[in-house]
Amino acid sequence: MRDFKLGVQLQPERTELDPLRDAWRELDRAGVDSIWVPDHFFPVSPGDPNGPNFECWSLLAAMAVDTSRAAFGALVSCVSYRNPDLLADMARTVSLLSGGRLVLGLGAGWCEREYVEYGYSFESPAVRLREFEDALVRIRARLPRLNPAAPGLRTLIGGGGEKVTLRLVAEHADLWNAFGPADDYRRKNKLLDEWCERVGRDPSAIERSVFVDASEVDRIEEFLAAGAEHVIVGLAAPYDLSFLDRLG
Fold it and tell me: Which residue stretches, if any, does this entry annotate as coiled coil (predicted)?
């Protein structure tokens, strides 16, 4: 029996819709705790950069009605790509479609090609972080004004920036997601605790998750020892779910 939460991120690139939907249905039946898709307009993993790819929030709406148990969301949704008030409304609607299982995963964005090809201004990291903070404030203000509301909608922030992002996690997030290696994750996990103390937040109120590649599944114990409570395994197509048997 697992003593940690297990999630899976399905890469919606270089695949077709049927195997993607089959994979998230099977994961839901298998009892994973969470299912995720990234928010990209083109494939970003090694391979054909112009291969097939599917838009994140359209997929999440389908996942809301295709699944019945697992939490799910974007890991993570770039706030630059959609008006923040609109994004709040989209999240509210998808959450209601799912019976309240959506997690609103948010990030500041990084992929220059997507900004340029879709007509968004690609600013410096400092500007994108300022815009990210503004978006978080707007989303939090909009959600309670929507009718009907989506009670219990949780927010995840992805990233490990020590001066700004972790502060924003402490101030705004219910979940935090970052990457390894495990030693880096441990250090940033402790820094997040310190930021929580500075802003007057109970550190235990923020669930700690970590993204690992499928090749790192055998090293999960290192991340758990570093403070992770929720491990999210990234899978590319074709979606080999056999690792679930090893994790129980």
Answer: none
Q: Quick one: tokens of 38?
A: 């990234």
Rounded to an integer, what distance in angstroms lies between the CA atom of residue 166 and that of residue 158? 9
* CB distance 154 to 176 below 8 Å: no
Compute the distance between CA of residue 101 and CA of residue 36 in angstroms, rounded to an integer.
12
Classify strands 154-158 and 102-107 as parallel, antiparallel or unpaired.
parallel
Q: Residue 125: count other Cβ atoms within 10 Å of its Cβ.
A: 12
**CB atoms near residue 120 (< 10 Å):** 14
Helices marked H in the chain: 17-30, 56-66, 84-97, 112-117, 125-142, 165-172, 182-199, 220-225, 243-247
Eight-class DSSP state of 163: T
Q: Which domain holds residue 24?
A: 5-247
- Main-chain dihedrals φ then ψ at residue 94, nearest 5 degrees: -65, -35
In the three-class reduction of DSSP (H, G, I as helix; E, B as strand; rest coil), residue 72 is classed as strand
158 vs 32: CA distance, rounded Å:
20
Write out pLDDT tens, residues 52-108. Answer: 999 999 999 999 999 999 999 999 999 999 999 999 999 999 999 999 999 999 999
Give the count of domains, the chain. 1
The reply to whether omega before 181 is within 30° of 0 (cis) is yes
Cβ(7)–Cβ(231) below 8 Å: yes
- The answer, yes or no, to whether residue 245 has pLDDT greater than 70, is yes
CATH number at residue 192: 3.20.20.30
